Amino acid sequence: MNAKAIGSSLLLIPIIILVISSWYVVDTGNVAVEKTMGSVDMEEIPAGLNWKLPLITKAYEFSAKEIVIDFNNLTPKARDNLRLKDLDISVYYKVSPTNVAELMVKYASSYERGEEGLLPAYGVVYREGRDVIYQEVTKIDSLELHRNRDELRDGISSNLQKKLDSKDPGVFTITRVAVRALNTDPTIEAAIQKAVQAQKQLEAKKVEVEIASKDAEIEIARAKGIAEANAIINKSLTPEYLQHELNEALKKFAENEGGVVVIPANMQNMSLMLDTKNIRK
Fold first, then answer.
1. At CA 226, angle to CA 221 and CA 232, rounded to 5?
2. Is residue 80 part of a domain?
3. Which is it for the CA torsion 246, 248, 254, 259, positive or negative?
4. For 31-40, 145-154, 188-197, which range has the lowest pLDDT when averaged over its residues?
């Protein structure tokens, strides 16, 4: 290859570099923000193939998808002033794609680099989220935290959303919060187990009391029924009815030729009617 050919090749190299550096691709779900010589273009660039000024314009690709921030090994104090051994929480958030450039300018050093692009205002959400987590834990006793995870999660989500909206209305959306681990001090764990056992024993005793109460109601109802039946029977045992029954018994005695007679001890107001002609002397 002669010198002329080599020179032509060398001239093509910077041209190729300029052409290549003039184009860039933004992934689906992301947006780009262009910065030219220190000046930020406030109009976000959508996904797809885009053109920019070579060398002097730099494109920053930000994620507009759901972003997760993991808070690990937190040790906040509960309402009863007892400190948790370990609390792991994940906060998921999204930013409005049309506000990414604004966030880049307002919070210039707060974004982080992620696998799918830069994470807008990551540091802002992290700082506010950590403060809210500590505040929400102080609202619940340590012995109650295990049974109130939903309350803790909802409190973090709603109050973090309020704090972010107070600074940048309509820009951030807290999509969800997950409590991944909640470990109290071992002595507190033992107290929780005792509290659970005591609660179960109390529930069992309540059931026993209810059963005993129902049994008593049954016995009262049974006794009432017997008393009412006896009252009806006693009311029906009039002197006339008893005399009638006695007469019927004597008739049966007569049919048996009067071999044996049993006379009740209490025969007040009763007339004994016998056929004296058939009594043997």
1. 125
2. yes
3. negative
4. 188-197
Who's near 1: CB < 8 A, 6+ residues apart? none
Other CB atoms closer than 10 Å to residue 269's CB: what's the count?
8
Report yes or no on 73 lying in a domain. Answer: yes
Residue 47 inside a domain? The answer is yes
Q: Please indicate, yes or no, if residue 1 is contained in any of the structural domains.
A: no
CATH number at residue 117: 3.30.479.30
Encode pLDDT of 29-47 as tens digits.
999 999 999 899 999 999 9
Q: Verify that 137 and 79 share a domain, yes or no.
A: yes
108 shares its domain with 179: yes
Exposure string (b/e) for 47-78, b if CB count within 10 Å is 16 or more?
beeeebeeeebebbbbbbbebebebeebeeeb
Residues 114, 116: Cα–Cα separation, whole Å: 6
Reported confidence tier of residue 15, pLDDT bands at 50, 70, 90: low
Instruction: Report the alpha-carbon distance of residue 120 to residue 136 in Å, rounded.
Output: 25
Q: What is the pLDDT of residues 73-88, one digit of tens each?
A: 999 999 999 899 999 9
**Domain of residue 243, residue span:** 239-278
H helical segments located in the chain: 3-20, 100-106, 122-137, 149-167, 186-236, 239-255
